[in-house]
């Protein structure tokens, strides 16, 4: 189960933030009508930030789910693509740093669901030089359908989060 949740604290106690203060992937302001219809049929729960919706066995905030759906519909992998996948807080930064050292040195590695497919359902991926390197927190079973017949490489970090 994947839950994208962040702890927001003041000096003395936790407080609920105004939605405009939240990072874009935690908001509910970028949803298509199709996604609104979908989330109305999904199991949901509420945390101190907002609503979480269960999609394909994973819990997502609404805008993050929009990014996941856009990725599933629109991503066309290339043979030379490299996808870095990991559970949140289980080595993503370390994995990206190693990859940058090997391939990209001066470039940022964008997340599919936070940076690319949240901002646009059809982002311009032609601006990335080959080999393109992307990152995601989507679990492997959710990547499978989109990347099923793809020759691209997936580096998946599977680590016990309790060990971090």
TrEMBL record:
Domain of life: Eukaryota
GO molecular function: sulfotransferase activity
EC number: 2.8.2.-
Broadest EC class assigned to this enzyme: transferase
Ranges where the Sulfotransferase domain occurs: 80-164
Keyword Transferase: yes
UniProt-recorded name of the protein: Sulfotransferase
Taxonomic lineage from the root: Eukaryota, Viridiplantae, Streptophyta, Embryophyta, Tracheophyta
């Amino acid at each position: 189960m994947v839950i994208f949740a962040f702890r927001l604290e003041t000096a003395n106690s936790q407080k609920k933030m105004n939605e405009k203060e939240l990072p874009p992937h935690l908001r509910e302001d970028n949803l298509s009508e199709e996604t609104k219809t979908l989330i109305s049929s999904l199991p949901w729960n509420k945390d101190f930030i907002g609503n979480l919706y269960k999609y394909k066995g994973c819990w997502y905030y609404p805008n993050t789910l929009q990014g996941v759906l856009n990725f599933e519909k629109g991503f066309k992998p290339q043979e030379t693509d490299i996808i870095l996948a990991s559970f949140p807080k289980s080595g993503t930064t370390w994995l990206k740093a190693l990859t940058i050292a090997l391939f990209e040195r001066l470039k940022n590695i964008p997340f599919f669901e936070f940076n690319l497919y949240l901002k646009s359902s059809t982002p311009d991926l032609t601006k990335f030089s080959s080999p393109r390197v992307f990152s995601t927190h989507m679990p492997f079973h959710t990547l499978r359908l989109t990347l099923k017949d793809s020759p691209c490489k997936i580096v998946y970090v599977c680590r016990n989060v309790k060990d971090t």
